[in-house]
Amino acid sequence: MQTRLQAGQGYGNTLNCILTVYRNESVVGFFKGMSFPLASIAVYSSVTFGVFSNTQRFISQQRYGDSNHAPALSDLIVASMVAGVISVGIGGPVDLIKIRLQMQTQPFIKANINLRHRATGFPAYRGPIHCVSSILRQEGLAGIYRGAGAMLLRDVPGYCLYFIPYTFLCGWITPEGCISPSPSSVWIAGGIAGAISWGTATPMDVVKSRLQADGVYLNKYKGVIDCISQSYHSEGLKVFVRGITVNAVRGFPMSAAMFLGYELSLKALRGDQAETNP
């Protein structure tokens, strides 16, 4: 729904989007383009969390001589920014394939009928593999990273508002004297951090989605600035908060589960290390 609201046409609000998708495409429509993200989410999440954690420990080692030293706010900012940059390299192609598969069922916009057609069949892609090969054939390797600039502008500050609130909320909720936060503390802190991050990232998420959806059949936008300009002139400022409700609502349970899995995995690994390296 998030992609349909942000890059699609004819959806007045979230409820209207749900009803329209169900009426036109049945339940299957809500799961279009999900096979590729599901296959890659484990790698994407582990790399992003791993980069953040290892960068933070590296900074602590260099600054304080102890990799387990409590990080300062500046340390968290740098580690979050590095994680955001790395995430684009992995997440950019994944998001592109998902969005192209989801948006290929959207009708042409009347205002765009004079734009250059890139494909004539409908639907344009038969699946993730065909989508990748079509993009590489028509747009080259750069086409796989279409929208990467907007994604950088979304993820670099977005991860700062993801990891930093989580770190401080976790420390605030966890009782003094406890070595590690409880699962409930992790769940709450992770969920709140996810809602904050996804909610504030929505404006640039709209731009990213539009740039990545652009090109299924038509080429409309020349880049980030052009996308912002065209979107603003045609739909006003309200276009940049499209999907904010979906983003914030989905951000809580998704992030809560991810942070909980991350912390439990770290605890299990540290326990194994303690047993093998007393």
Automatic annotation (TrEMBL):
Family matches, as PROSITE patterns: SOLCAR
Solcar repeats: 1-58, 71-172, 181-268
Gene3D superfamilies according to UniProt: Mitochondrial carrier domain
One example GO MF annotation: transmembrane transporter activity
SUPFAM superfamilies per UniProt: Mitochondrial carrier (SSF103506)
Keyword field contains Iron-sulfur: no
GO cellular component: mitochondrial inner membrane
Protein name: Solute carrier family 25 member 48
Annotated organism of origin: Chelonia mydas (Green sea-turtle)
Lineage: Eukaryota, Metazoa, Chordata, Craniata, Vertebrata
